[in-house]
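Note to self: the last two entries modelled the partners one at a time, which told us nothing about the interface. This time every component goes in together.
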Amino acid sequence: AQSVTQLGSHVSVSEGALVLLRCNYSSSVPPYLFWYVQYPNQGLQLLLKYTSAATLVKGINGFEAEFKKSETSFHLTKPSAHMSDAAEYFCAVSEGSGNQFYFGTGTSLTVIP
Amino acid sequence: GAVVSQHPSRVICKSGTSVKIECRSLDFQATTMFWYRQFPKQSLMLMATSNEGSKATYEQGVEKDKFLINHASLTLSTLTVTSAHPEDSSFYICSATRDKATEAFFGQGTRLTVV
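The predicted structure of the combined assembly is written out below.
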């Protein structure tokens, strides 16, 4: 069985500060891990994904995430927050191609000017 | 890239009527499509998984007679909410995967309001 836990349903950071959104997963098989961003009343946009290659994954908009098997974590970071980063972020896990995704409960990021 | 188009983006219907939502993969063949429901400020809840040409697999607690899913071609899946009630009001999102791809591509969602 697979599941995702996102610690912190709301995160607030100042503009220019570090963004850290936490994600822990459980999986009985080597996981594929994803971070998606959702803006109000829109679908999900892929930020980045881990599919068993490099453990440090770089995505769009300056985001990156590191897969740590020992900690079963896949935390999302960005060195400097921008106002446009304010959105809902979802971590997800799947078993691979064609399989369903399991989503975390989401983290709402607020960026304070 | 892989684009998934969902239509309509917003729909308002009267209680007791049926509403059809379309999900199309515009530039790839979608071997599997997923339908999710999202309540305000909550995560996506998987409703069903559909493969082209076969019956959809519904998640526990999802009424298959109420939420009819048809995946008639490799580029189109539809979700029909039958005899809609106000409690069916929600944000519905589809996603599609293609053969040997590891990620899912999401539609822009449909905001359904039942009055």
